[in-house]
Predict the structure.
Amino acid sequence: MKLTGAPHKNGCTCVDCENLAKTNASLKRFAEELKENAKMQDVDAINPSHYKFSDLEPIEVTERWKLGYNLGTVLKYLARAGKKDPSKEIEDLKKARWYLDRQISNLEKQKVDQLVSQKLADSKVQGTNDLINWGTENHPAYSRSIDSKGC
């Protein structure tokens, strides 16, 4: 089967043209089936269906509420738990818990850091006052009592 030269006219019944027509028809059906399957399946990697069960997707809530990465990810995993893959619902919930625990840990560290910073700042002020008081109370030039020599 060798097709050479000018293409045959429509309606040609030679073997080569019939085979080519069958092949083209098969390819068209295959392409249409792929398109139909793509419509039936969720092929939108950016906005998949397991996040489209509400008017707002988790990313929109995260942005509107200014949740940040960890809490936004918690929301994402809670939203899709059991919807993306029902067999992985528990896994999604554990992932949500992991990010929530991480957020709590980060907030606790920030709180400790703030308390330590405040204590350091307070101790520097207190330490400076103590030094000033010690210097004025204990230095002979600032002494309020006069010893036996009149100093």
Notes: Residues 140 and 151 are 8 Å apart (CA to CA). The chain has a mean pLDDT of 77. The longest helix spans residues 89-138. The chain has two domains: 12-41, 50-142.
